[in-house]
Design goal:
67% helix, binds zinc ion, mainly alpha, globular, two-stranded parallel ribbon, 11 helices
Amino acid sequence: MSIALAILLSAAAMTMIVGVRYLITSGAFAWATRVRHPGLYTGLDPQIRREIWWSLASAAIYGVPAGVVAWGWQNRGWTQIYTNASAYPLWYLPVSVLLFLFAHDTWFYWTHRWMHRPKPFRIAHAVHHASRPPTAWAAMAFHPIEALTGAVAIPLLVFLIPIHVAALGLVLAIMTVMGVTNHMGWEVFPRFMWGGPLGAWLITASHHQRHHERYGCNYGLYFRFWDRLCGTDEGLGDFTRDRARAAARRERGNADGRNAGRAA
Ligand SMILES: [Zn+2]
Ligand SMILES: [Zn+2]
């Protein structure tokens, strides 16, 4: 098989994996939302369809650099991904996970902040903010330009920071779950993770909710470090207004249903 074809197949396989991973994770949390907060997404069907469409397009983009690097790792010994757990001391496993998360967070914070400048916002980032309020399906709802900035982060980091393949799996799992839960419209995590001293540094749905409400603040992904350092942290949002709006949409839907019934 030619090298070009092998790389193409690897990229296609990665695209499939990212797309299916998105559908399963967002689907699971959307289902959890129906159970815990029935009616929260009422009336948002057209928006959810848009979120899924943009997210699947993003999955295609995410798959390309990931597929190329995965091929190079398997066939050319590229990257610093290792499989022998004793290649580095055991304490390095959690450290490597934190290093990856911090580096990814740094990349995200600055590219995200840049995308809130008027021109990049208009051209690209407006797609993500068209979700008002976002749902569990908005995790990867990005314009292709934004998807590209997100897609290169981890494939570049595996060249710079040594990481065990299982630790990398954990990083990807955290990335996936946080991407979905931050947009879900409610807190799935226990209060100590976002309310207490730990919450002063970690980002969960309450923090990102405020970003989607006020725009010019709370740009981070996993940690509040850069937001706090740069004075862009405006604290936690809350979901009462979003819930009231959902109730109003349900009420409107019921009234429409009654009127349609009367007209029939
Ligand atoms: Zn968002
Ligand atoms: Zn934004």
